[in-house]
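[recover] target loaded
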């Protein structure tokens, strides 16, 4: 092996995501060097069907020429401009108009970010901001679920109900409540129907809410179909009942549509497939087919109005990223 080969450099210098570092030092990477529709090709010329579309990202394939041409044309015209302090740009405006047109939240505002992790972090911050705006700053706790994946930032990892995401990082999970995983095949009891299983999960969640105190809970975050936790489709009736329960206890429902968004469940968004309307939802991945790091949070008008009033009182809405839009 040549010491300056791509493989040797990767093994020597690259700390990989979600990878065993010592094993990588020994085994090295599979280097993907090309793509064609649903296929990818490694540096040895082997061709593979990429059944997961990368990390559930490349919904338009791995070399869509229309997207490549659009990116090249835009880079030649204006490669970068920010959206702080009342600035904007035309592609950003076109995008939010099209996203609003397909949103299941009919009257909404859209915040742009770079990744699903950032979008989910932003939803939590917006939930806290909203609760403070309505005079309930003590509503801080967040409900997630065992097996959930919501990202790798500090908040995204804490929200993720996956033990390896917490191990050795010293994560503070004191304000996170983990509800049961809606996995009928694995978690359903003998003789239990999907409907009865869903009812039991909702009853267990309500007991958790009452024990913690509804006045301490800001929001619950949930993937319509769990991704990294096992590609888990919820039991029949689960989400409408969840929506009703959270409304009863004045708790927001945040949908993590990072994996499910843009047609993966047969509708534009997973929340439509499973019959519920969130107060906010996050998107990423399919938003650009993974071709550009981009994400968004879609916020209902009811929440926006309170957030806007609070931002005005503060003199500025103090959140955002260099690459937001």
């Amino acid at each position: 092996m040549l010491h300056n080969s791509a493989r040797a450099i990767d093994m020597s210098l690259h700390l990989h995501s979600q990878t065993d570092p010592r094993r990588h030092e020994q085994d090295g990477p599979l280097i993907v060097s090309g793509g064609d529709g649903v296929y990818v090709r490694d540096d040895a010329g082997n061709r593979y069907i990429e059944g997961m579309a990368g990390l559930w990202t490349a919904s338009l394939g791995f070399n869509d020429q229309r997207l490549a041409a659009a990116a090249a044309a835009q880079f030649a015209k204006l490669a970068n401009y920010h959206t702080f302090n009342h600035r904007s740009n035309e592609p950003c405006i076109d995008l939010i108009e099209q996203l609003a047109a397909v949103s299941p939240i009919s009257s909404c505002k859209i915040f742009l970010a770079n990744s699903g992790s950032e979008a989910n972090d932003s939803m939590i911050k917006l939930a806290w901001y909203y609760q403070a705006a309505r005079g309930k700053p003590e509503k801080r706790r967040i409900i997630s679920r065992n097996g959930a994946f919501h990202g790798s930032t500090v908040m995204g990892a804490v929200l993720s109900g996956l033990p390896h995401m917490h191990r050795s990082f010293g994560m503070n999970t004191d304000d996170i409540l983990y509800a049961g995983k809606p996995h009928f095949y694995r978690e359903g009891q003998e003789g239990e129907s999907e409907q009865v299983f869903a009812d039991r999960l909702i009853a267990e969640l309500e007991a958790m809410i009452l024990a913690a105190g509804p006045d301490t809970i800001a929001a619950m975050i949930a993937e319509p179909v769990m991704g990294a936790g096992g590609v888990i489709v919820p039991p029949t009736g689960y989400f409408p009942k969840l929506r009703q329960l959270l409304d009863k206890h004045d708790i927001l429902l945040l949908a993590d549509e990072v994996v499910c968004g843009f047609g993966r469940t047969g509708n534009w968004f997973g929340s439509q497939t499973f019959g519920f309307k969130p107060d906010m939802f996050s998107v990423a991945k399919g938003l650009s087919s993974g071709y550009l790091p981009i994400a968004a949070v879609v916020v209902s008008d009811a929440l926006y109005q309170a957030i806007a009033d609070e931002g005005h009182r503060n003199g500025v809405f103090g959140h955002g990223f260099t690459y937001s839009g």
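[recover] notes: The mean pLDDT is 96.
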